Every structure is written in structure tokens, then in C-alpha cells.
Amino acid sequence: MKVEILSDAQAVALRAADLVEQALASRPRPTLGLAAGATPALMYAELVRRKTDFSAVALFGLDEYLGIGRDHPSSCASALHSYLIDRIAVAPTQVHLLDGLTADIASASAAHEAAITAAGGLDLQLLGLGVNGHIGFNEPGCDFAGRTGPVVLTEATRTVNRPNFPSDQPVPTAAVTMGVATIMAARRVLLLATGPAKAAMVARFVEGAVTSQVPASVLQRHADAVVLVDRAAAALLQRT
Questions:
Q1: The Glucosamine/galactosamine-6-phosphate isomerase domain covers which part of the protein (predicted)?
Q2: Once rounded to an integer, what is the mean pLDDT over residues 180-197?
Q3: 12 lies in a domain?
Q4: Considering the chain, what is the average pLDDT of its residues?
Q5: Percent of the chain scored above 70 by pLDDT?
Q6: Distance (Å, rounded) from C-alpha 93 to C-alpha 119?
């Protein structure tokens, strides 16, 4: 796992956009796993500004809340459309997002895995970092061998995401997410973390033991994982 410390969130976004463009140029029909959340937003904006070519790219959503639809303004799908998908030239057949209202979550999860396999696997999986160390919605205590499927969200995750939902609507208690094994099967993983609120968890997952209680720590075992952090998020690292 390689850690790069950049000056600020904008510098992280610029470097991340460089690495995404490198990945997209590496294969004739590249595949990209998309993370929602606030941290990647600046990177997506930069890719849009650069007019990065997505015409041959297959896009795969990382996760989604259960119980709300793709058109719900607080859904991961809605965020991805707003940040990127609606601002680039891609056909609907290139976009594979998880559906929080599916009637058969097991079949939908298997179909997401099958679509990734049919596309040749993920060339690059983008990740943010949960305050409790989750990647995707793989919460502490998750199965490192897990594939795409439903999960129960911790109270910590729901609290952090409370501002993203209307005050009169509860944050969903469950989600569907690519599993840790799905993420680890990507040829490259790129995790972004910025701001002082992430500093303690950055130090734990980068320099601590590999444990399911800190899901992001599994990236220490990935052959090509890149972690981009700003100085604020890197503040508690012992080795810089």
C-alpha cells in the first residue's frame, strides 16, 4: 500500500484525477468502480473539467442505501449522477448502479458481481474512508471474504450521514455494498481521505494491524493500493 500526502483536498483531487485518467488509458475498455460520498466530489469535478473521455468505460457503483430509490436525492446513485454521470458522455448501458429498492437483493447483488466479471473485472476501484474505517458500506467486523450483498449500518455511519437526509426522514438502517473481496479483486484501489476528522482513522488503517474492526486496513494486503491524503488527514501518521 502506497500513501501519498498532498497539501490539501484540492491537491488530492488533482492527483486522484491523474490516476483515474492513467487507469482509463491502460485498457481499451476500462472499468471503474465509483464511490459516492463527499470526498471524491472534487475529483469528479476535475475529471469533468478536463473533459476526460469516458466513452469506452464501464462504470460500477460501490454501494447504495436500502429502502430508497435511485432517484431519491440522498441516494448514492443520485450523488454519482450529480457529480459525474450526468456531466459526461456515457450510454446507459455503460452504467451499473445498485438499486436500494430491488425486490430480490440476493439476485441483484449476484447480478452486480456478474456484470463486473463480464466486463473483465475492475481496473480501478475508488474509495472514501468512513470515520469508523469502513470502505464501501463494509462496517467494522465485516467478512473480508464477502462479496456484494446487504449489510446493516452502524449507528456511527448513520450519524455521520444524517445531514445528507431531510430532517423528517430517518437515515436507512441497511445498505447494499460491494464486499471486501470484490474491492480487493480490483487491479488497483484508490482511497481518498481529507480533513482532520479522518486523521485518527487514517493512522489506524495505515499503520495499525490488519483487522476487520478497521475494514480499510485490509488494503495493506492489496498489491496495488494507493492512499491519497491531505496534510490534515495525515496529521497523526508516525511515518510521513
A1: 9-225
A2: 98
A3: yes
A4: 97
A5: 100
A6: 12
* Separation CA 71–CA 142 (nearest Å): 28
In this structure, is residue 8 part of a structural domain? yes
Task: Please give the positions annotated as active site.
Answer: 63, 132, 134, 139
All cell numbers assigned to 183: 474491492
CA-wise closest residue to 136 among 13, 222, 219: 219
What's the CA dihedral at 216, 63, 154, 67 to 10 degrees? Answer: 180
| Bridge partners of residue 211, in order along the sequence | 214
Domain count, the chain: 1
- Tell whether 6 is covered by a domain: yes
Confidence check: pLDDT of 240 > 90: no
Q: What is the pLDDT of residues 102-114, one digit of tens each?
A: 999 999 999 999 9
Helix (H, G, I), strand (E, B) or coil at 158: helix
Cβ of 168: how many Cβ atoms within 10 Å? 5
* One-letter identity of residue 144: F
In a domain, 195, yes or no: yes
Output the CA angle 77-85-87, nearest 5 degrees.
135
Question: CA-CA distance, 71 to 78, in Å (whole number)?
Answer: 6
Query: How does pLDDT run across 117-136, given as a tens digit for each residue?
Result: 999 999 999 999 999 999 99
Burial of 49 (0-12, 13-18, 19+ CB in 10 A): exposed
For 183, the domain range is: 2-230
Res 239: pLDDT:
76
The CATH number of residue 132's host domain is 3.40.50.1360
Contact 236, 204 (CB under 8 A): no
Predicted confidence band at 36 (pLDDT cuts at 50, 70, 90)? very high
